[in-house]
Specification:
It is built from 21 helices and two strands. By secondary structure, it is mostly helical.
Length: 507
């Protein structure tokens, strides 16, 4: 009964905070970016809890730790330095300043203002809404696997519970509630990860943190090597996919829109980076120890599944009270990520697609109501995919993350800092990123099995993360190449976009 009581108290606190902030979301600006009033600690924790969800703690930690051993810690380092520290350092101040001056609340709105293209805004809105659904589904899946292991609640029932809770949590509070609750959730995540590592490494199957390296080396020397069994290309792909993606993911960039002022960025950068190091380091280290708990992958629906590694390890190694705390940890991360995804997708469709293009005379109140309805629609669609998953968590996340980041990273980054970026260059980058990510997914999963090709087999071994990484990197070359060959914008337009600042790429 104690574990159910702990979860009930957690849910009550979340709903209470949502109700508390309900009166603070009177306008669209309040609902989407918190009236640009969020301080350093709340901004930093909100960034971190949105970044890391059940996809990391269940799907990624298990599958990557099993496949790469301790070399998965390179991914943790990449997430900390490239995915968090440099993201804040390079993009935080400029994003806050430009989004405020241009009076934009979403990624599609920014692209429209920067490139003077309503069609680009519509295309960006559709990309967000379509590909955030499988991403959200992957979060549902990871969370529900843990519910099933610790509470013995059937997978489908756990999914429905999470659907109702997430919809209620977001619709009641908006972005101000998200930021406030993320701070509370972040504290739970930090405490949970530290305890998780302590008990998983301290279990007799491992023999302690000091002995873990020699224990893994005894199973397979590659598990304790700088590059694990999965190979260098696969490891680099995962580092790039999970780290560079934050530079173009709308739900991450939106955190910069809502900060109070550029003055909060230095403190938020440090706090957010330390948060990332602890969470990712603990998750990937724990996943790497999976070979000490299992000789083979657990079975799900008659097939080996890496998604069950972490839930089974937690069920085996953690005391009941700690196991419930870890459940709340994953629940915290997932609620934050889901709310960020749902808020970004619903605001993109309602503000950018409907009010901004199809129904320009729509009132703010009606836009707000539609946005809340779309929140529910988005969550229900994610639920349907999670109940009928086309693959493992890592594959779903890789497809969604790679496609969205591939579409936006280069156009957004160059749009922030380089005045010579043209509309044609931005379009070329967006389309290139989408085609590489989707094309890679179908190459891996739908290519005729009767065609034997060493190249295809190698691509299948590298998997969806490889194509997701290419989808981010290739447009970084495509955008400037096309921009240099196409007409520049007028001085009037550039003055409006960049103000009177001297355009300098700031590190």
């Amino acid at each position: 009964m104690m574990k159910f009581g702990m979860v009930a108290c957690f849910v009550a606190v979340i709903i209470g905070l949502s109700l508390y902030t309900r009166t603070k979301t009177a306008t669209i600006n309040d609902f989407v970016v918190g009236n640009r009033s969020i301080g350093p600690w709340m901004s930093a924790f909100s960034f971190g809890t949105t970044y890391f969800s059940a996809v990391l703690l269940i799907g990624f930690a298990g599958k990557v730790g099993w496949g790469y051993g301790l070399s998965a810690l390179w991914i943790a380092l990449g997430n900390t330095l490239l995915g968090t520290f440099l993201t804040w350092k390079v993009m935080g101040s400029r994003t806050r300043e430009m989004s405020s001056r241009l009076n934009v609340l979403t990624m599609p709105s920014f692209l429209e203002a920067r490139y003077a293209s309503t069609n680009m805004k519509i295309f960006a809105s559709l990309i967000i809404f379509i590909f955030f659904i499988p991403y959200s589904a992957s979060v549902f899946m990871g969370l529900s696997y843990l519910f099933e292991q610790i509470f013995n609640i059937p997978y489908a029932v756990a999914l429905v519970i999470m659907t109702v809770l997430t919809a209620l949590y977001l619709v009641l509070g908006g972005y101000i509630a998200v930021a406030l609750i993320d701070f509370v959730l972040g504290i739970i995540m930090l405490a949970g990860v530290i305890l998780m590592v302590n008990y998983i490494a301290g279990n007799e199957a491992v023999g302690g943190i000091i002995n873990s390296i020699s224990s893994l080396r005894a199973v397979d020397p590659k598990l304790a090597a700088p590059v694990g069994p999965g190979g260098l290309i696969g490891l680099i792909s995962l580092v790039v996919l999970t780290s560079l993606g934050t530079w173009g993911m709308p739900q991450m960039i939106q955190k910069f829109y809502g900060i109070k002022s550029p003055d909060v960025i230095p403190k938020a950068t440090i706090v957010s980076s330390l948060f990332a190091l602890i969470i990712t380091g603990g998750a990937y280290y724990s996943g790497a120890l999976s070979h000490l708990y299992f000789a083979e992958l657990p079975i799900l629906n008659g097939k080996p599944s890496p998604d069950l590694l972490m839930p089974n390890i937690m069920n085996q190694a953690l005391p009941e009270t700690v196991a419930v705390l870890i459940l709340l940890l994953v629940l915290s991360a997932s609620m934050s990520t889901l709310s960020g995804l749902v808020l970004v997708s619903s605001s993109s469709v309602s503000i950018d697609l409907l009010q901004g293009a199809l129904l320009p005379d729509m009132s703010e109140k009606r836009t707000m109501n539609i946005m809340k309805i779309l929140c529910v629609v988005f969550i229900v669609l994610s639920l349907w995919i999670a109940l009928n998953p086309p693959g493992v968590i890592l594959t779903l996340m890789g497809l969604s993350w790679g496609t969205v980041a591939g579409a936006f990273l280069a156009p957004f980054l160059y749009g922030l800092f380089w005045e010579k970026t043209t509309r044609a260059g931005a379009w070329a980058g967006m389309i290139t990123g989408v085609l590489i990510s989707i094309g890679g997914y179908f190459t891996i999963n739908w290519f005729p099995v009767w065609i034997e090709s060493p190249v295809l087999q190698l691509l299948q071994q590298w998997g969806t993360p490889f194509f997701g990484s290419l989808a981010m990197l290739v447009p970084l070359a495509v955008v400037p190449a096309v921009s240099l060959l196409t007409p520049e914008y007028s001085e009037e337009h550039l003055a409006k976009v960049y103000g009177k600042e001297e355009l300098v790429f700031e590190n």
